[in-house]
């Protein structure tokens, strides 16, 4: 697929190849992933916090099928292409791509980040920990901003329609 921004890639291998010269210069790679179904201030703060941990921020955006499995019926609200375009357009994001697996371990195996970031609603005991640490990286948890979630926004919209 052809994307409108130079920060959006078809897969993790394209990202790896794009970043090869930067990694060779010792730039610190930070990765994260998520659904990013309705982009909100909590997402923007989360990605800014992640970017501050290194030099390059790469974001894996969950595919539509994986969002449906994670979030349930009616999700995602926006399709995967729209979501990756929004994430890839943010100033803090150096590269974004859609991943189709149920968790990020496959793309982490390819990218081998120095730091993999998760939000405060996670603990350091996540499935991707072993993959990241095996390649010399570490897991960082950044604070979750209370009251800023896609689920909260959807609930507010639904309440307002009932009123």
Largest sheet: 6 strands, parallel
CATH topology name, in short, is Rossmann fold
Named CATH architecture: 3-Layer(aba) Sandwich
Helix segment tally: 7
Low-confidence stretches: none
Strand order of the largest sheet: 1-4-3-2-5-6
Helix proportion:
40-55%
Distance separating the two termini = 42 Å
Mean pLDDT: 90
Counting helices, strands and paired strands, the structural category is: alpha/beta
User: What string gives the helices and strands in order?
Assistant: EHEHEHHEHEHEH
Basic shape:
globular
Instruction: Tell me the total number of β-strands.
Output: 6
Task: Give structural notes.
With 163 residues, the chain is an alpha/beta fold. It has one domain: HUPs (Rossmann fold), CATH 3.40.50. Helices cover 41% and strands 18% of the residues. It is built from seven helices and six strands; from the N terminus they run E-H-E-H-E-H-H-E-H-E-H-E-H. Strands 1-4-3-2-5-6 form a six-stranded parallel sheet, with helices on both faces. Helix 2 links the parallel strand 2 and strand 3. Helix 1 runs parallel beside helix 5. It is globular, with a radius of gyration of 16 Å. The model has no long low-confidence stretch (mean pLDDT 90).
Q: What attributes does this structure have?
A:
single chain; 163 residues; alpha/beta; Rossmann fold; six-stranded parallel beta sheet
């Amino acid at each position: 697929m052809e994307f409108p921004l130079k920060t959006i890639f078809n897969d993790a291998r394209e990202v790896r190849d794009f970043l090869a010269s930067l990694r060779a210069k010792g730039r610190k790679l930070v990765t994260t992933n998520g659904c990013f179904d309705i982009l909100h201030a909590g997402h923007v703060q989360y990605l800014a916090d992640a970017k501050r941990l290194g030099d390059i921020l790469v974001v894996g955006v969950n595919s539509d099928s994986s969002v449906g499995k994670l979030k349930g019926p009616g999700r995602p609200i926006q399709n995967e292409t729209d979501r990756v375009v929004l994430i890839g357009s943010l100033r803090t994001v150096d590269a974004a791509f859609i991943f189709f697996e149920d968790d990020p371990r496959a793309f982490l195996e390819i990218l081998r980040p120095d730091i993999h970031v998760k939000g405060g609603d996670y603990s350091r005991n996540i499935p991707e920990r072993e993959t990241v640490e095996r390649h010399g990286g570490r897991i960082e948890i950044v604070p979750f901003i209370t009251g800023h979630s896609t689920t909260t926004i959807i609930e507010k919209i639904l309440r307002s329609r009932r009123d």
